[in-house]
Amino acid sequence: MGFIVAIASSPRQGNSDWMLNNVIEGIETCQINCRKIVLRERDIKVCDGCLACEQIGKCHLVDDMNSILNELSAADGLIFAIPVRFDSVPGILKNFIDRLNPLLFDDRMKGKRMGMLVVGQLSGREGKSSRRKVINYMKNIAEIFSMEFVGSVEARGRLVGDVQKKVGEICFRFGKDFGGCLR
Fold first, then answer.
1. Among residues 118, 35, 23, 30, which one has the least CA distance to residue 74?
2. pLDDT of residue 182
3. HEC states along 108-135?
4. What are the residue ranges spanned by the domains of the chain?
5. Architecture of domain 3-43+73-94+113-179
6. Average pLDDT along the chain, 183 residues, taken 10 residues at a time
7. HSE (CB half, 13 Å, CA atoms) of 55?
8. What per-residue confidence (pLDDT) applies to 163?
9. CA–CA separation, 25 vs 169, rounded Å?
10. 23-49: buried (b, 16+ CB within 10 Å) or exposed (e) per residue?
11. Which of 36, 101, 168, 183 is 20 to 30 A off residue 48, Cα-Cα?
12. Distance from C-alpha of 100 to C-alpha of 78, rounded to nearest angstrom
């Protein structure tokens, strides 16, 4: 495996970022390079729906997305860290997904491994259901791109630091498994 792209999709630095950092540590113990993309720190314009990318394989908008698309194309796997927002993904992740359209028509993502970390503030059945909606949405994205969904880690937390006691070791092991150390 060459390298893995880790995508932090929270509009703030919080629990999902912390979980992702633990996964990255686990991946790197497998001697696998991991490149972290923090969406809130990138200039990613909103897709204008022109569909020109279907013909030319890249987006005409001038921002950070074309270099990100090149990284994703070269990567062996992707890990998404996702805070739940109203039973869905945060807006910056949805915008990012919309901008993946150039990769849809030439199989550049086919066969890549995809995993995710999902953290939401609700508890009980309602919280589980909310996190499952996000996982199912992202599984669908993996299917659309013919990627292999390999698993997820879920956590409950609202305030920064809520999940640290519960899932640090789980995320680390998930990273080791994703990186190939535990297979």
1. 35
2. 44
3. CCCCCEEEEEEEECCCHHHHHHHHHHHH
4. 3-43+73-94+113-179
5. 3-Layer(aba) Sandwich (3.40)
6. 87 84 88 93 93 85 91 92 82 92 86 89 68 87 93 73 70 83 50
7. 4
8. 66
9. 10
10. bbebbeebebebebbbbeeeebeebee
11. 36
12. 13
Asked if residue 82 lies in contact with residue 9, where contact means CB atoms within 8 angstroms, the answer is yes
CA–CA dist 80, 16 (Å, integer): 9
* Closest to 17 measured CA to CA, from 76, 68, 71, 92: 92
**Could you tell me where the DSSP H helices lie in the chain?**
15-28, 53-56, 65-74, 91-98, 124-144, 164-179
What is the predicted pLDDT for the residue at 98? 92
Structure tokens at 78: 């992707």
Whole-angstrom Cα distance, residue 150 to residue 14? 24
Q: Name the one residue in this structure whose structure tokens are 């999940």.
A: 163
99-132 burial string, b = 16+ CB within 10 Å, else e? bbbbbeeeebbeebbbbbbbbbeeeeeebeebbb
The first and second tokens of residue 57, run together, are 């394989």
What gap in Å lies between CA 59 and CA 14, rounded to an integer?
A: 30
